[in-house]
């Protein structure tokens, strides 16, 4: 299904439409087996030419607060988690990896933070994605003040948090150097790395923990895992699973039949190959003997 852009939706000033969009997107995700939906942007329009304006509601923090809250709350009822992004202050797309955004606390709370507060604090979104820009001089994903003091402690948020696609590419601007700050980011309260891999930032933090024998780093990684498991446990992914459910490995009859057929044909193929080699060798030997016999006849004559 195709949906209109967020500014058009916001311009309806209609609670039911805000919620309907979240509900429909959640139902689609549920039937597709998705755990999360990353389509709940809640940043503000700082300029009409903003590169992500199509997925952010408006230039008004209060309107965004209300619209995002309605959308996220409805989506969460389907069992698909809404992941609000890009938290927060993503004022431009051009060179967003290095831009620094400055504001005083009042402006931050009345603007960018309030825009997301409805989704995270009131609607209890399952997750949020931080942004690439810096809050002052600190990368948003590494901001303890924002990710822990405000979101966790002040808002009482229980979902999981993640970076933007910081694991992709190489070089500082292309996000590769962030691996050097893996522990710093976990310590700030950010628990996942978008587009990471099994050799990425979590592994880097684990290696540092082992090298330094630092239990605090292990505690951070455990806390990150707990928040992720909490998100899974409170999603539609666990539908049909109870406290007595068990995961049992079984081999269906058709798998056994296929394996047996593969084995039988493999044996036949090997036997055929052996027969071919033996036949070729025997034929070669007979031809060699014939040549020797002919040679002896020529010598006799």
Automatic annotation (TrEMBL):
<dbReference type="InterPro" id="IPR001764">
    <property type="entry name" value="Glyco_hydro_3_N"/>
</dbReference>
<dbReference type="InterPro" id="IPR017853">
    <property type="entry name" value="GH"/>
</dbReference>
<dbReference type="InterPro" id="IPR050288">
    <property type="entry name" value="Cellulose_deg_GH3"/>
</dbReference>
<keyword id="KW-1133">Transmembrane helix</keyword>
<dbReference type="Pfam" id="PF00933">
    <property type="entry name" value="Glyco_hydro_3"/>
</dbReference>
<dbReference type="GO" id="GO:0008422">
    <property type="term" value="F:beta-glucosidase activity"/>
</dbReference>
<feature type="transmembrane region" description="Helical">
    <location>
        <begin position="261"/>
        <end position="282"/>
    </location>
</feature>
<keyword id="KW-0378">Hydrolase</keyword>
<keyword id="KW-0472">Membrane</keyword>
<feature type="domain" description="Glycoside hydrolase family 3 N-terminal">
    <location>
        <begin position="9"/>
        <end position="199"/>
    </location>
</feature>
<protein>
    <recommendedName>
        <fullName>Glycoside hydrolase family 3 N-terminal domain-containing protein</fullName>
    </recommendedName>
</protein>
<keyword id="KW-0812">Transmembrane</keyword>
<dbReference type="InterPro" id="IPR036962">
    <property type="entry name" value="Glyco_hydro_3_N_sf"/>
</dbReference>
<dbReference type="GO" id="GO:0009251">
    <property type="term" value="P:glucan catabolic process"/>
</dbReference>
<comment type="similarity">
    <text>Belongs to the glycosyl hydrolase 3 family.</text>
</comment>
